[in-house]
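Morning run. Coffee first, then this:
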Amino acid sequence: GGGIAYNREEYEDIVRRGLAESPVSQVLIERSLLGWKEFELEVMRDLADNVVIICSIENFDPMGVHTGDSITVAPAQTLTDKEYQLMRDAAVSIIREIGVETGGSNIQFAVNPDDGRLVVIEMNPRVSRSSALASKAPGFPIAKIAAKLAIGYRLDEIRNDITRETPASFEPVLDYCVVKIPRWAFEKFPEADRTLTTQMKSVGEVMSIGRTFKESLQKAIRSLEQDRWGLTLDRPVELDELRQLIRVPNPDRLFAIGDAYRAGMTTTDIHGLSKIDPWFLDNIREIIAFEPEITRDALTTPAVLRRAKQLGFADRRIATLTGSSELDVRALRGRHGIRVTFKTVDTCAAEFVAHTPYLYSTYEEEDEAPPSDRRKVIILGSGPNRIGQGIEFDYCCVHAAFALKELGVEAIMVNCNPETVSTDYDTSDRLYFEPLTLEDVLNIVEKEQPLGVIVQFGGQTPLKLAVPLQKAGVPILGTSPDAIDRAEDRQRFNKLIAELGLQQAAGATARSVDEAQTIARGIGYPVLVRPSYVLGGRAMQIVYDDQDLVQFAGEAVKVAPEHPVLIDKFLEDALEIDVDAVSDGQHVVVGGVMEHIEKAGVHSGDAACALPPYSLDEAQIAVLCAQTKAMALALGVVGLINVQFAIRNDVVYVLEVNPRASRTVPFVSKAIGVPLAKVATRAMLGESVAPLAGIEETERRHVAVKESVFPFIKFPEVDTVLGPEMKSTGEVMGIDRDFRKSYLKSQIAAGSTLPASGKIFVSVRQRDKRTVASLARRLTEMGFGLVATAGTARVFERQGMTVELINKVLDADRPNVIDLMKQGKIAMIIETPGDGRARKDSYLIRRAAVNLNIPYHLTVDGAQAAIGAIEALLKEEHRVRSLQEYHADA
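And here it is:
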């Protein structure tokens, strides 16, 4: 809720928003330190008053950018020893004065680059957003040690897991450099302001480890998975635009700096625009300055090629600079003996032996971690969190590691996300903190020589590597890449569905906008347009006419130019269902059938859903299960499979099949009490799933509801209407004896507390008015007042209900509904978006609801579920039970 105000109008707006966001209706107003250098220290204290500094972190971006949105570097690089000691002493004094008796704290400082003046920004007497980075960078598990301190241990009594000799009171020492780069999702919110400020906007991050800042920075860039392989923008820009990109903090600033050096700008010029410390800028300048040498000599001079790798250049970037291919560069390195070496993160700069293989790559002479001779499997993680691919996939990777350990197989994890459990050094037997690229994964495969690689748990990131890895001779465990392609390739998939005698919506593939128009006219509007081989509904749209089709088909082509665009008939008002199952190639067990609360048209990752289904009958569920099993066996699935169905006019349509882990696997696993990812891993290594067939017959006495969480408060320009492109950044689960109570819990968990009294504003489009009238009557029977605009109010009055008439937002007359919302007189909103002027009106209402934290429902189905939950809230007794208790009663 924070921000920087440059004038009184901005000041009042930020204060107003901050007061609304604050649970105690307070805001902190401080002098701006724009342009100062920003640092963080992660500090721990025990009951005996021992204090240690775990990690120092320096922000690449100066003050003015939220630390969660800033590139950060550990250890701090530009402090003098005197400045660091002053900061360290201040941190120790602060944690003692505040009274943090045990555990960790994060303390942020600003340093004036002109005179070295030190200012304390804030202190968080708890683990913070930076604690994951501060744990992973030195290999010091802050939360784990804080838990031991809380029950009375001293730091000197806790043994270091990695060295097994030193105590936790030894401050970690780093002989390498760690870089974190945030991952943003502005492609999902094109109307959002891309300017980075003191309000955090990123949805994830990557971390890389290298011997130098240059190497680590370049590894972090390719870890982002944005098809960026060097310090360059993805489009040509004029010098004036370059200057603007450097002056105003934004996600492209780092890459603009690289192009600025190529355009002849100096470190002094760039520092003057950005206030980024010249030390960082000079490192970038040296990377850019070496590129012409690569272009000229890398293919003919081994010393130049080796130096390029030591500077962190990817094979693919070297190939671009030299006009060759990535695999040619790799082969050339092999002929010259330029091979990667792996170093350990050991907390002590190699003073003691590291017993926990937590590894990163570099190009030096000594390799610190020889592989074992055990049977081993590599698991590819999911990379940075983003919309459409988050911790749901990390859950699957972690359970895969657990299953491998139980089977006596060495579990090797590859990932680059510091926010995940998979990158804890004790989750797997060996952890490689590396980018998930073909080059980096092949380096590890060549080193470890595993039985195979698991690619189906990490989302789209490892799936994209499946075919290249297979072509390189790497065994892929579980479902074959060909089967995955058969499900993604529309023509092959259509043939499979036809062979099985199943139904799907009419559709075809297009490789051009003209072809897309021909297909759409043939099957009839509305149509669903989406690129193939993407997650999270990226660039997916429901299109109602030719004009929109030209725009959205063009966008889909841009997102995945190497793959065709899918055009399908959109099944309006259809019921949508997800099914998750696991197969060993001969047997298929359905883990869960989930009914979406919203009708088709809302991305499955954004839709609320219930398990078991709350409106389907047993015959319909049996059909869904039978079709899922038929498709799994026909595809030869070994592992997990997710199928999305639609039911319209009692006809079951197959929407899509994903022969991999889906984002619903953790939800289903917790709802049914069976870890499906573990089961799938065992199936990949030859175990049968047949003994689990009984879970399909188990009659559960509870209902689980999944609800999504959205970042709309961060993006005031973005409309909150949901569609086929995913926008949520997380999810919650509610569980209870019936659907209404479970849905109630899910809303509370998602931060949308349903009201027990007050006035409900209702404004719906024409076709929803009859249905909503019955819902409104239920609200009045519970004692709620109704507020509506003229059209909806007339419908309610004709049915004998009392309703308060309110002006539309765009009408000249006041007060309107937003006035009532700001006065605290509206407890909940039910509003289905219309077209034209009505749509603009409803957009303003939705945005106000987000800003004022008023629960709102934009579909009739969502409103119906909410009203049922309110009835349960007011009329029924509630009790808390553990997950284990629910499963014991199943």
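The chain has 29 helices and 29 strands. Good start to the day.
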